[in-house]
Amino acid sequence: MKEKSHELRCTGCGARIAGTDATSNFRCAQCGELYEVVYPWSSDGANLPNAGALRWLWQERRSSTLPIDQSGVWRFRDLLPILDDPSHAVTLREGNTPLYELPRCGKIAGVDWLLAKHQGMNPTGSFKDTGMTAALSVAAERGFKVVACASTGNTSAAMAAYAARAGLTSIVFIPEGKIAWGKLSQSMDYGALTIQLKSDFDGCVRVLNDLVKRLPIYMLNSVNPYRLEGQKTPALEMVEQMDWQVPEHVIVPGGNLANSSALGKGFEEMKRLGLISRVPKISVIQAHGANPLYRAMQASGGEQLEPVVADTRATAIRIGNPASWKKAVRIIRATGGWVEEVSEQEIAQAKAEIGAEGIGCEPASAVTLAGLKKLTRDGRIGREERVVLLLTGHTLKDPEYTIDFHRGTLFSDQEASSLRKPPIVLEARTDAVLKALESSIQL
User: Fold this and answer.
1) How many independent structural domains does the chain possess?
2) What is the strand order of the sheet 99-101 is part of?
3) How far is CA 198 from the centre of its chain?
4) Where is the Rhodanese domain positioned along the sequence (predicted)?
5) Residue 400: its pLDDT value, please?
6) Average pLDDT for residues 4-26, to the nearest whole number?
């Protein structure tokens, strides 16, 4: 496989262009749909590499001291030859994230075998790092000096970090008052110019789309197809960590909906190359207050999507007009997955249950466990199926949410939960502490 042999193919009309010919907003000039990256071996009749040799090569790279080999994205660079020179990759040693067992959550959800692929263990604390290393590396190699994104938090943190690493200027557009401050603080720390717009995420996207048409700014939102090339690599990591066995089901949070399509692309490419024998079902879970895909699937089977005014405390998925919804629908249909919605209370409870395993995640990640409960309850997922939850962000991404849950102030009508662990305020006397311990824990 040659290093620079790739094209962009429109997911609507199928038109193919060179990567350098894409418009600034990464929309097809003929039909307006998004692009995907394709390679010579993506087509029928192509000469395919040896699957066993690829597995051996990727494993060998794990013992290398080269930064590009220590990256869990660029370690698989044979399947994303998007750079003219791989040494141009901008990396923070992203990827190689853990695959945790969740026995207690599995028991709660009604499955015997539950795992979590924790993308919150990336350098900036979210799955966005895997896509950002890919897309920003392309931007740097092509000579762009300024990069920008609209963000609900995680994208801005990742972009700012990788731009700083590459010596590029980064601009972040965020909806005023609708972002977790822990995420915004990262963008500030990494030197990004942060602009808060008096709008929601979709309004920020509209402004950014106008700007990139007028200025030499490289857009790094998930409409950028190179983002998805990086974001497909957790699929490779997942089956590698499972000794090349494939789970029956992978469950993903649904925000802008690029992640589900990226993972689906990764699984489909592995199957085509003979690395795996089948593709898992991929299901998407949305918050009830930000559920345009769920509504679209209920109303028209995913043929049409009506934007919504998004409202959820799970800020990472507070998106009412997801750009990649058509890609997500295709993957869900192709794999036989589902789309489900969960309430704010269900998200909070699931987040606490994951935390009780000693893992922890941001609120948006917890929709996966909340959705799994619904899918097992009505028989769409069987007890014997192997399920992997994709946890997209670290628990410290939104500490205010966690504190409010345990204090009982997250919602006005928050129900009591045995998982709530509010701090106990006592006088500084040993007897007072002993009395509290006797009533709180079993010694």
Assistant:
1) 1
2) 99-101, 113-118, 386-391, 249-253, 281-287, 339-342
3) 26
4) 146-190
5) 86
6) 92
